[in-house]
Design goal:
Length: about 140
C-alpha cells in the first residue's frame, strides 16, 4: 500500500524544508516541519515507510539540538516503523543518545550493533568518544 502521490509530495515538501532548516541550524523550526509531515500520515502510521524517515529526521533534529531524551523517543518510534529495525544510523543515534544521557551500558549495546552492521565507517563523521566505547569491545 502506498501513499497517494499528492499526500507523498506534501510530506516530502515539509521534510525537505525541515532538512534545509537543519542545515541553517534552526532546529525548532525544522522539528515543526517534520511534525507537520508526521501529522499527514494516515493511521496506522507505523505501516508507512515515510514514518521511518520522519521519525529519524525528528530524532536527528533533537539530537543535534542536544535534546537527547526527545531524540531517543523519536528514534525508538522509528524502530517500530517499516525498515526501522536494524537500521545502522538509527542504532548509532540511539547509542549516542544513551551515551549523552549517561546510560553507558545501553550506549555500548546500540553503538556495537551499528558497528556490527556498518563497520567503522558509520563513526567517521562522529566524535571519537562514541567509537571509543566500541573499540573497548572489539
Amino acid at each position: 500500500m502506498e501513499l497517494s502521490s499528492q499526500l507523498y509530495n506534501r510530506i516530502k515538501k515539509y521534510c525537505a524544508l525541515g532538512d534545509e532548516l537543519i542545515e541553517e541550524g534552526d532546529f525548532d523550526e525544522a522539528i515543526r516541519n517534520y511534525n507537520k509531515a508526521r501529522e499527514l500520515l494516515p493511521e496506522p502510521i507505523y505501516d508507512w515507510e515515510a514514518a521511518t524517515w520522519i521519525f529519524v529526521a525528528l530524532g536527528d533534529a533533537f539530537y543535534l539540538s542536544s535534546r537527547y531524551q526527545d531524540a531517543l523517543n523519536n528514534l525508538k518510534e522509528a524502530q517500530k516503523c517499516y525498515g526501522g529495525i536494524g537500521n545502522p544510523f538509527i542504532l548509532l543515534r540511539i547509542g549516542q543518545c544513551y551515551y549523552e544521557l549517561n546510560n553507558i551500558g545501553n550506549a555500548k549495546k546500540y553503538l556495537l550493533q551499528a558497528y556490527m552492521i556498518e563497520g567503522e565507517d558509520i563513526f567517521k563523521n562522529e566524535e571519537n568518544k562514541y567509537f571509543n566505547i566500541v573499540r573497548e569491545s572489539i
